[in-house]
Backbone:
């Protein structure tokens, strides 16, 4: 069965706010970490780079997304942040927003050209995080933007398998409605139904069986 540990996002540690580094680019990173919208606006107006990065590669956009500061993240996007700039763990803004289930910002990022295909250092995509965590609205947005419901990711795992393994029945239902291949098998030969059974997710198992899925 897919382990829950595997769904941990590879987001890196926040930037240090040491007083010895007071450059505008360092300050914008601190403002993003603290969710200080006013400071972020002022710093950008004063010339701070919207794509500033800390030593681990996090940008203000990524930092705001991983800390749940929607307003700061939206500001960064509005001011021209690179929506595909990943950190050193290859985590993109779309992955971070999908991991947190922030459908509003996922939509904004997709409209700004965020790419769905990139994988992070552990082989996860935005869709994998959304499906594995049961963020059905985000999954729907990714599908609407062109992601295939039948796509196979690392170890031949599909979004349906990730959702089924964690008992996210609503997400499983959506994926089945959008044409997900319930007969697909991962690199161990397991189907989504087998994963739901192994996880003890009765409701998800019943849904899959009702849809005519077999092991």
Residues:
């Amino acid at each position: 069965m897919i382990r829950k540990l595997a769904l941990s996002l590879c987001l890196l540690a926040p930037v240090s706010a040491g007083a010895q580094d007071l450059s505008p680019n360092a300050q914008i990173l601190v403002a993003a970490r603290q969710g200080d919208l006013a400071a972020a606006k002022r710093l950008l107006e004063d010339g701070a780079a919207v794509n500033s990065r800390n030593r681990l590669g996090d940008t203000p956009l990524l930092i705001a997304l991983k800390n749940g500061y929607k307003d700061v993240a939206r500001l960064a996007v509005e001011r021209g942040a690179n929506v595909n700039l990943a950190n050193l763990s290859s985590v993109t803004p779309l992955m971070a927003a999908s991991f947190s289930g922030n459908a509003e910002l996922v939509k904004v990022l997709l409209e700004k050209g965020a790419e769905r295909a990139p994988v992070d250092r552990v082989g996860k995509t935005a869709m994998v995080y959304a499906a594995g965590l049961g963020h059905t609205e985000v999954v729907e947005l990714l599908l609407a933007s062109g992601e295939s419901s039948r796509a196979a990711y690392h170890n031949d795992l599909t979004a349906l398998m990730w959702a089924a393994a964690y008992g996210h029945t609503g997400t499983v239902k959506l994926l089945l409605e959008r044409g997900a291949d319930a007969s697909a098998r991962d690199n161990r030969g397991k189907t989504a139904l087998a994963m739901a059974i192994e996880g003890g997710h009765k409701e998800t198992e019943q849904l899959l069986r009702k849809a005519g899925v077999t092991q």
